[in-house]
Amino acid sequence: MNIGILGLGLIGGSLGYDLRSQGHHVLGVSRRSSTCETAIALGSVDEASVDMSLLAAAEVVFICTPIALIIPQLQQLIHYLPVTTVITDVGSVKTPIVQAIAPLWENFIGGHPMAGTTDSGIEAAQRHLFVGRPYVLTPDSTTPKTAISLVEEIVRSLGANLYYCPPEQHDRAVSLISHLPVMISSSLIATCMGETDHQVLQLAQNLASSGFRDTSRVGGGNPELGVMMAQYNRQALLNSLQQYRQNLDELTHLIEQSDWTALKLKLQSTGKARPKFVE
């Protein structure tokens, strides 16, 4: 197939690698000509341009721009496409995107690959990024079955694990396991940096190892992405933060009361629950 990718960053570039390896002809569009040149040189796309009209020949288009650009970019893109073109996106928030785009384009299905790194840009793109990773599709009652089947086929070919859910459920779930951790991780780093004794702070920085690395990783990522998570998934994230605050207050109370038995039971409970989320 001719497959279009609008936005040649980490996700778009990685999609390009895998789709080209399967024999698809990949058309890429980026806002910067230098990114287009790099994507071609790296072998992520067959053709690339800053002009959206390049995607007129695509049977499917993946919109891989930052969340804030998905809707305005689609509004420009649809002027170049035949009505049969299937459009999907990779945004980490689904409800506002689906609500805005579904009335504009019949053959649209929201999507979100749960894959990525803290790096960004076409240079960060990698092959097989989606293998074994969750990939969520969020069709609504109006989404044509043909569009669902086509995107499903492509996603399965990437080696991803496919899930379906309504946009609202998706946003509540990712607020818990993706967006909330960014805010918690950021708060952890800020708390450490708030240490006023310079020698203690320096020692903490010298001693930080795998535990701190794991818990702080997402807080050290792209700040613009973190802001967009909060802006576009605001209510779900606020609910998750409130739940987290209640649990943190509970732990604080147990320690204040020296209730080590209850604290141990709490930690045992969370230890048993963790494998349900990660292996």
Present the secondary structure layout.
Blueprint (H helix, E strand, L loop, with lengths): L1 E5 L3 H12 L3 E5 L3 H10 L4 E3 L10 E4 L3 H11 L8 E4 L5 H7 L6 E6 L20 E5 L6 H13 L3 E4 L2 H27 L4 H10 L2 H7 L6 H10 L1 H23 L3 H14 L6
Parallel strand pairs: 1-2, 1-4, 2-3, 4-5, 5-6, 7-8
Antiparallel strand pairs: 6-7
Walk me through the structure.
The relative contact order is 0.11. The chain has helices spanning 10-21, 33-42, 67-77, 95-101, 145-157, 167-193, 198-207, 210-216, 223-232, 234-256, 260-273; strands at 2-6, 25-29, 47-49, 60-63, 86-89, 108-113, 134-138, 161-164. The mean pLDDT is 94. It is an alpha/beta fold and 279 residues long.
List keywords for this structure.
single chain, 279 residues, alpha/beta, eight-stranded mixed β-sheet, 11 helices, 13% strand
